Amino acid sequence: MAKANQPTLQAVLKSLPWKQCREVSYDRTRGHGRKETRSVRALTITDLELD
């Protein structure tokens, strides 16, 4: 996830077809007294224009 101080990166990430992507890695751990869940998704981008 991109932070709010990187609006161009946020816009590009938001425009990607995430619903067509399947999860490639899913991890649940416990750290610092809380449960953490991470998922990693991968997309193949063949044509991407950045302004």
- The percent range for helix content is 10-25%
Number of helices: 1
Return the average pLDDT rounded to an integer: 83
- Count of beta strands: 2
Order of helices and strands: HEE
Q: What is the CA-CA span between the terminal residues?
A: 20 Å
Question: How many strands, what sense, and barrel or not for the largest sheet?
Answer: 2 strands, antiparallel
Strand line-up in the sheet with most strands: 1-2
The unreliable regions are: none
Radius of gyration: 14 Å
Quaternary structure of the protein: single chain
Walkthrough of the structure:
This protein is an alpha+beta fold and 51 residues long. 18% of the residues lie in helices and 33% in strands. The chain has a two-stranded antiparallel sheet. The longest helix has 9 residues, at 7-15. The relative contact order is 0.23.
Would you spell out the secondary-structure blueprint of this structure?
Elements: H1 7-15, E1 23-31, E2 34-41
Antiparallel strand pairs: 1-2
Describe what is shown at a glance.
With 51 residues, this protein is α+β, with helices and mostly antiparallel strands. The chain has one helix at 7-15, and strands at 23-31, 34-41.
Task: List the defining traits of the structure above.
51 residues, alpha+beta, two-stranded antiparallel ribbon, 1 helix, 18% helix, 33% strand
